[in-house]
């Protein structure tokens, strides 16, 4: 019996443990922090051995294979030890994918991957049976065990791609690449780019690679590092023969001389970046033979993703918008770009090596006040102090919202778009977004 050690007792860890047990592995789950009660309950119920609050080396270093949670960096001593002993370290998607024959759609990118994955799933599920997993919802491993859909849309982070060996999606989507998580890649942008491109490294000519042709980082990398798969680029500015492009407010998608045309006028999601997300999702749907009518209707009734430019409430004619999912500068760039009125901007958190320069044009143009919400706001104050009349600091969401309420006038926006990670003051970006929404509702 082979021994599977799972590091991290969260959604992906527990899902992997369940699938591992079903596939007759001797399974052990180890988490350095506390495992949530709901997950402990599942492990106990399924008679899977686990520990939390520590890693016992003697129970880990005898593994045949180790599945590590994407949150654990490679530089951790334990991981180095495991690798030094020649034990395979894999991510959940690598472990789980070998147990399904489903058609896999893998979606990665610095921004837009959750919206694109959710939208793609929304377009496909009307016509075919399809699961949504990866960084989102129930774990991929658990779904393979319980549902085994014939198709899956997977939202995949660079951390998960770092630990693949044979994983190969039939359709890969790369939404964009901007500097993010550089703290995990020794501040080397090239390493981060390479990690994103691993989504296509096992693809063959029978597979498809959908990507943003307007993104120079992607196009330059492709020139130097060609992939095997069939390329289907999308663009807002170029005319694309095979792939998707924008022509007079119509999205035109061509695959093997078969063209479909989608008007953008009625897209449920606003903003240029969402036209790109719609192009990527529609290209996948077109490849998987979803009816044009279904694609069109689905693009028009899609509700969007929580914490991503989510309109919360209008109070005294001021619109409150929750974009807590903006954990890097590029995501906030899209948010500020789409503001159509003077905006009170709530920003800050754990800085991952941000360069705020690309936001300057929008801050000068659209932002009337800045509220810094973080434990260390020095870089924000330095970057934006001279651009707005009002810049204040706080460490409490409720206070940030109250200050915004005092400053914003009728017809204006209050935008939470932090451009930073949330771990200094919040559990995660969801917690941060929920606290914002609660504070707004309590005004």
Automatic annotation (TrEMBL):
Keywords: ATP-binding, Cell cycle, Cell division, Cell shape, Cell wall biogenesis/degradation, Cytoplasm, Ligase, Nucleotide-binding, Peptidoglycan synthesis. It is found in: Cytoplasm. Transmembrane segments: none annotated. It is an enzyme of class 6 (ligase). Residues 307-420 form the Mur ligase C-terminal domain. Its EC number is 6.3.2.9. It comes from the Bacteria. Residues 107-285 form the Mur ligase central domain. ATP binds at residues 109-115. Pathway: Cell wall biogenesis; peptidoglycan biosynthesis. One of its GO terms (molecular function) is UDP-N-acetylmuramoylalanine-D-glutamate ligase activity. It catalyses: UDP-N-acetyl-alpha-D-muramoyl-L-alanine + D-glutamate + ATP = UDP-N-acetyl-alpha-D-muramoyl-L-alanyl-D-glutamate + ADP + phosphate + H(+). The keyword Transit peptide does not apply. The keyword ATP-binding applies. SUPFAM superfamilies: MurCD N-terminal domain, MurD-like peptide ligases, catalytic domain, MurD-like peptide ligases, peptide-binding domain. Belongs to the MurCDEF family. Cell wall formation. Catalyzes the addition of glutamate to the nucleotide precursor UDP-N-acetylmuramoyl-L-alanine (UMA). This is UDP-N-acetylmuramoylalanine--D-glutamate ligase. It comes from Psychroserpens algicola. The gene is murD.
